Amino acid sequence: MRVISGEYGGRRLKALDGDHTRPTTDKVKESIFNMIGPYFDGGVVLDLYAGSGGLAIEAVSRGMDLGICIEKNFAAIKIIQENIAITKEPEKFIIKKMDANKAIDFLKEEQRIFDLVLLDPPYAKQEIEKQIEKMIVHRLLSEQTVIVCETDKSVTLPENIGPLAKTREVIYGITQITIYK
């Protein structure tokens, strides 16, 4: 697993051993960023199920100003910290150890606004639609927000969630990428 492109391109990232996280493959990661970017002119990215932090690191590498990584697994937090250290720019990242739903409430209190949201929950525990609706209600999304959902290919997400419309859906093996704008 590595950073594909941008400022940190080519740097190797660590992944958590075992089945606690399911890192996005380099092929899928590259495809995601080619669909939504591939590069950014600033902004804030939220990685709500950060795992190894690879997606947020990729977004910052490609031009986002700040990456917020939410993860509840302690061992995964340690891997995220190690991966962020590889960037040599830890000030561009915030790591919070908490449940995704609690994090949405916490981010409301901090009055954060996100330009890119990455949702890659464990396949068995998906609450994507509810979480996006909650982010809309809490006004956590900018007018130009792009939301990337990574799910099992058997998951059917709605065409619209509030004012957001599904703009793209692609399947890679067992993984489905759905993009909302």
From TrEMBL:
PROSITE patterns: N6_MTASE. Gene3D superfamilies: Vaccinia Virus protein VP39 (3.40.50.150). It comes from the Bacteria. GO terms for biological process: rRNA methylation. It holds the Pfam family Cons_hypoth95. Keywords: Methyltransferase, Transferase. InterPro entries: DNA_methylase_N6_adenine_CS, RNA_MeTrfase_RsmD, SAM-dependent_MTases_sf. GO terms for molecular function: methyltransferase activity; nucleic acid binding. CDD domains: AdoMet_MTases (cd02440). PANTHER family: METHYLTRANSFERASE. This is RsmD family RNA methyltransferase. It comes from Candidatus Enterococcus dunnyi.
